[in-house]
């Protein structure tokens, strides 16, 4: 009888400790359920279908193609923000539950730079391999948008692509998608699945591998620091470097 009471007491203490850790980290795992996962996928599909119609209207009625593309990016970003807010309000998430939690600056910065260097090394090796086999990446619309920018265009590129996009995409793909997948598949499986979805939704086959590697790095940072701020930092640094690289050498 005494042994049974000790066992029950130990189990109770364990449950209380796990509950405390979840509350301390600002996470209620029960909220990250199948409904959230379904909402994410339905929302993403709906946005992409809606953007086909919206883009048709934008590009038909805007004479300058770059201006049209800026409007398209701004519109899609706005729709993704609305999706995030709908899920957040519907499930009563706090911003902390979506990964917006404070983090130590220096340790996270060191990890950001390490992962960033590794992902660029992977990208360089990947580009050398596909070039060796005669595969030449074609310039997409985004690359054309970043080429030979005016000062105003450069500022807009940085605001939209290196600042706004990382906050929006990391909240959606790491804060919501990864968090929900982790509930059902475990940590590393969730990192890999969310990274694959993140890369695939850019709809650019040749760049899938380096973006997939970046997605894994973003997920790793989120798990290690229990915050999406390092992931946002890496995402922003990667996009900013690409913007500067294309702007200078175009």
From the structure above, extract its key features:
250 residues; mainly alpha; 9 helices
What does this structure look like?
By secondary structure, the chain is mainly alpha-helical. The chain has a domain at 96-249. It contains nine helices and no strands. The chain has helices spanning 2-24, 34-61, 65-90, 105-132, 141-146, 151-185, 187-200, 208-225, 229-249. α2 packs antiparallel against α6 (151-185), α6 (151-185) runs antiparallel to α7 and α6 packs antiparallel against α9 (229-249). The radius of gyration is 21 Å and the shape is globular. It starts with a helix and ends with a helix. Residues 19-29 have low confidence and may be disordered.
Outline of the structure:
By secondary structure, this protein is mostly helical. It contains nine helices and no strands.
SSE order: HHHHHHHHH
C-alpha Rg, in Å? 21 Å
> Would you count the extended β strands for me?
0
Shape: globular
Mean pLDDT, nearest integer? 87
How does the SSE layout of this entry go?
Blueprint: H1 2-24, H2 34-61, H3 65-90, H4 105-132, H5 141-146, H6 151-185, H7 187-200, H8 208-225, H9 229-249
Helix pairs in contact: 2-3, 2-6, 3-6, 4-8, 4-9, 6-7, 6-9, 7-8, 8-9
